[in-house]
Amino acid sequence: MSSPDTLTARAAELAHTWSARRVVLAHADASGSADGAGGGLARALDLHGIGALGASLADGERIELIDADQTVVLTRHGASGALRVSWTDGPTYEQRVSLPAPLAAASAPQTGPVAPVAPLGRPVPDPAAAIADLSAPLAVRKGQLYPLGDCPAEQREGIVPAVTIQQLGDPSFARDHGVKAAYVAGAMAGGIASVELVRAMAEAGYLAFFGSGGLPIERVEAALQELSSSLGSRPWGCNLLHNPAEPAMEDQTVDLLLAHGCHRVSASAFMTLTPAIVRYRAAGLKRGANGEVLETTAIFAKVSRPEVASRFLEPAPKSILDGLVAAGRITEDQARMALSVPLARDITAEADSGGHTDQRPLPVLLPLLIQLRDSLSARHGYARPPRIGAAGGLGDPRSIHAAFEMGAAYVLTGSINQACIEAGTSVRVKVMLSEAGMADVGTGPAPDMFELGAHVQVLSKGTMYAQRARRLHDLYRSYDGIDALPAKVRARLEQRLFRRTLDDIWADTRSYWAERDPAEVERAERDPKHHMALIFRWYLGMTSRWARTGDTDRVRDFQIWCGPSMGLFNAWATHTPFADLAQRRVADVADALLEGAARLRRVSVARAHGLSVRG
Question: Which residues contact 240 (CB under 8 A, 6 or more apart)?
Answer without folding.
Answer: 212, 250, 253, 254, 257, 265, 266, 267, 268, 276, 277, 280
